[in-house]
């Protein structure tokens, strides 16, 4: 039995069980915690160069609770609440208590976030020996891994280096932005499961982005078998909860996971944060855009319907995504389609964006602009150059991320163009007080993470979030879909019971005619 299951049995007064002292302690601790999320008091190490906020101290103590009972869990705090410093405090305590037995701990994070771990470790836990595995010369450092306290690498390199890293026994493996292993069949998820460690920890503000199968993948990494096989989990929990709205099954799953997941939102633990205001700006397409939109929509809708009829929904998703992409590009700017007939068509959204930015800059705002299309950012910067507006730009091709962030934070340049994929995580941009989402996507977690580059601990000004949505188009329908997805994680953790995932009807709705 897993210790949690054994402790549950040991706590049952109707069962004649004489548990071991360790098991009895775990049962007693779980019983005490069932009515409160506050862990038992434990002081942070004296060598920690940080003063933790009260909720961060609770997070540190929760990690100590897991380690004391050989458990593994998910710290699912909102973006910007300091998951890194809480984890570093725990790593330092593990070392100073001697429980790590001189073995290193390993942090695996997105490539863009790894430098942040290195900087924060240097700042908050300077006594930890940190080893960075990065770049083509990293293999010569593998021999030094056993002598480090903390080893940092990326998900991308983990896949390449798993043959060597998988043979090294470490004390604690930490996956930051753990949603990177949400697909259990992906190479990165399989590589993570091959790592050898005493304990494991996932950090993710979005442990469930689209469906409960993603949570199963994280738990498989943490505690293989705890939620059964994927097939059994789907039958016992995912399908009853998502399709049948079975509140009883959800309560069972929630109770099973409760000791292993700690989630706090900004509203709960950071009341000192200034207000955040979300403003949606409806934009009417130009006549030329409408005609192009309807022509492409009708053509792609027929193609999608034919594909679904011939191959079924699952085998037609690529065709659907292509259709969705083209319609989204028309909404952003017809030139993104790279068609001769679209090259001369104006973009209603770009015109609206231009006026909005000019107004905000006149008000003295400092602005982050996010788009999923790097080509759209290129079109935006052409207009900025013509109007003599200074800006910075961050995409996947940018090399000096830290330098760009420092320039913006210094207050010199008021506008920062950022591709959602390259800059949605791992950046602290509290100098901004305004966020513009040029285009929406149906996974609201991506937008929320991007917004949290500005709306995080350290922000002292009210933050305004502007969303540009083309009226009557697929963008408006995507925004409606977000409402059903945005609360997916909290529904499991907070007790609501309806989970929605896109089906054939939803996909067809996205491709329905333009609403005038």
Overview of the structural elements:
With 516 residues, the chain is an alpha/beta fold. Helix content is 46%, strand content 13%. It has 21 helices and 13 strands. It has a seven-stranded parallel β-sheet with strand order 3-4-2-5-6-1-7. The termini are far apart.
Low-confidence runs: 495-502
* Percentage of residues in DSSP E strands: 5-15%
What strand line-up does the widest sheet have? Answer: 3-4-2-5-6-1-7
Q: Compute the gyration radius: what is it?
A: 24 Å
Can you count the beta strands?
13
Distance between the terminal alpha carbons, to the nearest Å? Answer: 60 Å
Considering the chains and any ligands shown, give keywords for the structure:
seven-stranded parallel β-sheet, alpha/beta, 46% helix, 516 residues
Give a short synopsis of this structure:
This protein is α/β, with parallel strands linked by helices. The chain contains 21 helices and 13 strands.
SSE blueprint:
Blueprint: H1 3-10, H2 21-33, H3 54-68, E1 73-75, H4 83-97, E2 105-109, H5 114-124, E3 130-132, E4 150-154, H6 155-165, E5 169-176, H7 187-193, E6 196-203, H8 212-222, H9 230-244, H10 247-257, E7 261-262, H11 266-269, E8 276-283, H12 287-311, H13 317-332, H14 348-362, E9 367-371, H15 374-386, E10 392-394, H16 401-409, E11 415-419, H17 420-423, E12 434-437, H18 444-451, E13 463-470, H19 474-485, H20 488-494, H21 504-510
Parallel strand pairs: 1-6, 1-7, 2-4, 2-5, 3-4, 5-6, 8-13, 9-11, 9-12, 10-11, 12-13
Helix pairs in contact: 1-2, 3-4, 4-5, 6-7, 8-9, 9-10, 12-13
């Amino acid at each position: 039995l897993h210790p949690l299951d054994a402790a549950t049995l040991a706590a049952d007064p109707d069962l004649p069980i004489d548990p071991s002292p360790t098991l009895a302690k775990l049962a007693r601790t779980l019983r005490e915690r069932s009515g409160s999320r506050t862990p038992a008091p434990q002081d942070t190490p004296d060598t920690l160069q940080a003063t933790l906020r009260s909720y961060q101290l609770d997070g540190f103590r929760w990690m100590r609770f897991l380690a004391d009972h050989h458990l593994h869990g998910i710290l699912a705090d909102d973006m910007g609440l300091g998951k890194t410093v809480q984890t570093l405090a725990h790593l330092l305590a593990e070392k100073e208590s001697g429980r790590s037995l001189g073995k290193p701990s390993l942090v695996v994070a997105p490539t863009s976030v790894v430098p942040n771990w290195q900087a924060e470790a240097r700042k908050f836990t300077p006594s930890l020996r940190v080893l960075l595995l990065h770049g083509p010369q990293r293999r010569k450092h593998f021999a030094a891994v056993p002598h480090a306290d903390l080893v940092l690498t990326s998900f991308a390199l983990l896949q390449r280096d798993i043959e060597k890293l998988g043979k090294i026994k470490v004390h604690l493996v930490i996956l930051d932005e753990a949603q990177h292993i949400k697909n259990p069949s992906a190479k990165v998820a399989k590589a993570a499961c091959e790592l050898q460690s005493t304990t494991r920890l996932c950090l993710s503000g979005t442990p469930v982005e689209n469906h409960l199968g993603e949570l199963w993948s994280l738990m498989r990494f943490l505690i293989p078998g705890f939620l059964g096989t994927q097939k059994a989990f789907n039958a016992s929990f995912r399908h009853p909860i998502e399709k049948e709205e079975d509140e009883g099954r959800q309560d069972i799953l929630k109770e099973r996971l409760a000791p292993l997941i700690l989630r706090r939102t900004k509203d709960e633990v950071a009341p000192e944060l200034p207000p955040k205001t979300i403003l949606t700006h409806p934009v009417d397409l130009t006549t030329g855009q409408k005609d192009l939109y309807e022509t492409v929509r009708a053509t792609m809708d027929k193609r999608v319907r034919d594909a679904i009829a011939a191959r079924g929904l699952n085998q037609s998703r690529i065709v659907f995504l292509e259709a969705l992409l083209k319609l989204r590009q028309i909404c952003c700017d017809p030139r993104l389609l790279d068609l001769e007939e679209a090259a001369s068509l104006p973009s209603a959204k770009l015109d609206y964006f231009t006026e909005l930015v000019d107004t905000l800059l006149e008000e003295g705002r400092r602005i982050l602009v996010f788009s999923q299309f790097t080509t759209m950012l290129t079109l935006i910067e052409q207009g900025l150059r013509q109007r003599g507006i200074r800006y910075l730009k961050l995409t996947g091709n940018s090399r000096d991320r830290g330098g760009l962030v420092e320039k913006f934070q210094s207050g010199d340049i008021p506008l920062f163009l950022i591709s959602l994929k390259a800059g949605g995580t791992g950046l602290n941009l509290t100098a901004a007080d305004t966020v513009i989402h040029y285009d929406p996507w149906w996974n609201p977690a991506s937008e929320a993470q991007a917004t949290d580059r500005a709306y995080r601990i350290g922000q002292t000004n009210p933050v305004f979030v502007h969303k540009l949505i083309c009226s009557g188009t697929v963008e408006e329908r995507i925004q409606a879909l977000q409402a059903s997805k945005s609360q997916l994680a909290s529904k499991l953790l907070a007790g609501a019971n309806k989970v929605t995932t896109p089906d054939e009807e939803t996909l067809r709705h996205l491709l329905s005619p333009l609403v005038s």
